[in-house]
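Data availability (excerpt). The following record was deposited with the supplementary files.
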Amino acid sequence: MEPELDADAIPQGATLVDVRREEEWAVGHIPGAMHVPLPELQERAAELGDGSVVFYCKTGDRSRMAAEAFRASGRDAASLAGGLDAWTAAGRPTDS
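Predicted structure:
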């Protein structure tokens, strides 16, 4: 998987993980995504399973850090290009 993906390129069956803060998650998030704030990611990594993981945040900065760390440990991981801002700008749905 590429290090950064557009929403249309998210692999079927990939786990979407929102790494934003709790208050950001509460405002809106991608339907079906898991919420694991970036500071908790290392201790909760096992919750994400062994498959492909696509991280996202508001703009893509924090999720890029998460994806890089996971890729460095041998995991199949990517960051959502443009984050939730790009997702919503494209008219994609969010849950709150």
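Summary of structural features: The longest helix spans residues 61-72.
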